[in-house]
């Protein structure tokens, strides 16, 4: 009886061992079957993570495009109607000042697009005023006085624009920085007529009337 039981136990153990062996073979087969897939999936996620990390490190080009240089029809009409050089120049400078005031207010309120629009109008008025004075430049003291008037006003506008620039997000800073440089260049253009003349009229050295 003992031998019979012993044989039964041995047979059962062999069956269990054979089952475990087959189970291991099946597991290894499945692992070998799915291993390339898992490796491919791991490689994909690794590449995706590296790409995302690299993009996060790269600075995005989010610089806002410069605003349109635009003068509304109403302002154009007012400037066209004013034919006296002195009054025309004063009117243009008043319009430019109004634009800067609005830009300062919009900047305080963090309404940067609206601020950009006002600075674009300021830029357009500056170009228009320079063109107007250059067209009427006949070496007369009256025209020279108004070139000086423009130069003095631009001298005051520059620090105001600089204060705006300092408070701006980096997205909007570049245009204002370039505008400040342009204002400096415009000041140089405004004084060029004085050096184009061999003799500067005495009134040209005085404060514009």
Brief sketch in words of this structure:
By secondary structure, the protein is an all-alpha fold. It has seven helices and no strands.
What labels describe this entry?
209 residues, mainly alpha, 7 helices, 81% helix, elongated
Describe the protein.
It is a single chain. The protein is mainly α and 209 residues long. The protein folds into two domains: 1-58; 73-205. It has helices at 2-57, 73-81, 85-108, 112-135, 141-166, 170-196, 202-205. The model is unreliable at 53-60 and 198-209 (pLDDT under 50).
What layout of secondary structure does this protein have?
Elements: H1 2-57, H2 73-81, H3 85-108, H4 112-135, H5 141-166, H6 170-196, H7 202-205
Overall number of strands? 0
Strand content: under 5%
Please outline the major beta sheet. Answer: none
Helix fraction bin = over 70%
Order of helices and strands: HHHHHHH
Q: What is the quaternary state of this protein?
A: single chain
Overall mean confidence score, pLDDT: 80
Please give the alpha-carbon distance between the first and last residues.
135 Å
Radius of gyration: 39 Å
